Amino acid sequence: MIMPLISLQSPETAAKEVAEVFETFKPILGHVPTPLQLFGVSPALVQSMGTQMSYYFFQQKELDPLMLTWIRYLNGRQLECRFCIDMNARFLLEMGVDQETLEKGREDPGTIPLPDKEKALLLFVLDALGDSHGIKRDSIDALMEIGYSERTILEAVAYGAYSSYTNTVLNIFQVGE
Predict the structure, then answer these.
(1) Separation CA 24–CA 30 (nearest Å)
(2) 160, 71 Cβ separation under 8 angstroms
(3) Integer Cα distance of 38 and 29 in angstroms
(4) Where do the H-state alpha helices sit in the chain?
(5) Does 138 reside within a domain?
(6) How many whole angstroms separate alpha carbon 86 and alpha carbon 24?
(7) Looking at the structure, do residues 50 and 134 belong to the same domain, yes or no?
């Protein structure tokens, strides 16, 4: 395992504002995830990450946790973030996705067994992340016709973009490689 290029913030020595973010997620995840420890080097960045995670995990109700995990997994694969791929593969398996489905979904996201509505949003987010200039209004209208609001569409895309941001920073500092 390659050591990260900068030091991670250990939970034991974290400043109060960083420790508060760490403590929010430790009971749920059983530990302080490595990305939080990296972002914990900057209190402002870890608080931003904590706010994002809290919103998507605890507050919003429109985006299914399984779909969000697929977004993180496939985005990690696209950006070659080994840590993100492995962590989210483990989460998907714990959520009941079998190994064969995981492999098929990795190769062809259209095969992922989600309800049609969620699959449409997942594929839209992946398309948006792959070609941010290529999205057309009719794609958004199609999602709205099946019941998504503009807010939910925006939040799903923002979640994917935030995942890209996190994956990129982890890659730059070689966290989890």
Answers:
(1) 11
(2) yes
(3) 16
(4) 16-29, 34-39, 43-54, 65-78, 82-94, 99-107, 116-130, 137-145, 150-172
(5) yes
(6) 23
(7) no
The number of distinct structural domains making up the chain is: 2
The structure tokens listed for 102 are 């995981």
CATH of the domain at 120: 1.20.1290.10
The answer to pTM > 0.85 is yes
Q: From first to last of its 177 residues, what are the pLDDT tens digits of the chain? A: 568 899 999 999 999 999 999 998 888 778 888 888 999 999 999 999 888 888 888 888 899 999 999 999 999 999 998 888 998 999 999 999 999 999 999 999 999 999 999 999 999 999 999 999 999 999 999 999 999 999 999 999 999 999 999 999 999 999 875
Question: Do both 21 and 99 map to the same domain?
Answer: no
3 part of a folded domain: no
46 and 117 assigned to the same domain: no
